[in-house]
Amino acid sequence: MDLLDLARAAADAGAGFVRQAARPAGPGAWSVKGHHDFVTEVDRGAEEVIRRILLAGEPGSAILGEELSPGDAVGPGLVWVVDPLDGTTNFLHGLPWYAVSVAAAVDGRLEAGVVVNVPAGRRAEARRGGGAWEDGHRLAVSTIDDPAFALIGTGFPFKTTETLGEYARQFAQVAAGTSGIRRPGAAALDLVDVAAARYDGFWEQWLGPWDMAAGTLIIREAGGRVTDSEGRDREIGPGPVLAGNPAMHAWLLECVRPAAE
Predict the structure, then answer these.
(1) CA separation for the pair 185, 84 (Å, rounded)
(2) Considering the entire predicted model, what is its pTM?
(3) pLDDT of residue 37
(4) Nearest to 8 by CA among 123, 128, 131, 134
(5) Could you state, in order of their start, the residue ranges of all structural domains in the chain?
(6) Across-strand partners of 252?
(7) In terms of C-beta distances under 8 Å and separation of at least 24 residues, what long-range contacts does 29-34 make, across chains too?
(8) I need a labelling partner for 8 at 20 to 30 A (CA). Which of 112, 141, 163, 164 fits?
(9) Cα–Cα distance between 54 and 164 in angstroms, integer?
């Protein structure tokens, strides 16, 4: 199968599973993965649905998933990078902002990516060299080049609170120069919002590969940049992420990099 077709089928099926699943009644049904980081049987069930579809379509492929596949490194050959429920905490509290993300990488290079906004039923996708699309509409990053008019997305360091001081300095610099900062709580959707020009830029101190893989390709195919905090093109792996249209990415990089020194 075409990799994008298969990623789309798997992401849609995972989103359907999450959409019909009963939300756990309270913390007694949540498992704690780490500090402020939760997982439920809904996450695991969605990943299993996605896994079955991907392996049926490409039996020799590997899967790097947040819940069922350990590790964070992408090996050679065809590897699927899967987040079955990005924004689990939002889901657990009934906040309608969470997603399913599926990306395909071949020998470490992103080839296809799909992000489904589960509550909204909205799908963004990209194929390398084929542009980025959302529900049939081609995506393009914003043309805003003056930070005074920019809206920036972010993610708080909720897992690694020892970096809160550094993040507070970054936040202060970005807030002082822009028209606003938003933090909805699902990084895959934040990256899609950059591609769709709803945000002009985005940064977070640390994301896992499953959080960013599909969104990275979607932004690049929409004309934007995705790098680490030193301005190096972001590879598939854990670490800091800066994204935006070319002008706002450059500005954001200059804002965030001195704050970390």
Answers:
(1) 15
(2) 0.92
(3) 44
(4) 123
(5) 3-136, 147-259
(6) none
(7) 30/92, 34/159
(8) 141
(9) 38
Q: Which residue has the tokens 């301005």?
A: 231
Helix (H, G, I), strand (E, B) or coil at 21: coil
Cα angle for residues 126, 79, 203 (degrees, 5° grid): 55
For residues 64 and 74, the answer to whether their CB atoms sit within 8 Å is yes
What confidence score (pLDDT) does residue 157 get? 86
Fold of 147-259: D-Maltodextrin-Binding Protein; domain 2 (3.40.190)
Q: How many helices (H) and strands (E) does the chain have?
A: 7, 14
Element (DSSP H or E) covering residue 98: none
Nearest CA-CA partner of 45 in 80, 2, 88: 88
And the tokens for 184? 């909805």
Helix (H, G, I), strand (E, B) or coil at 212: helix
CATH superfamily of 3-136: Fructose-1,6-Bisphosphatase, subunit A, domain 1 (3.30.540.10)
DSSP codes of every residue in 28-78: GG-EEEETTEEE-HHHHHHHHHHHHHHHHHSTT-EEEETTTS--S---SSE
Instruction: Choose among 61, 65, 55, 87: nearest CA to 76.
Output: 61
pLDDT in tens, 158-194: 776 778 889 999 999 999 999 999 999 999 999 999 9
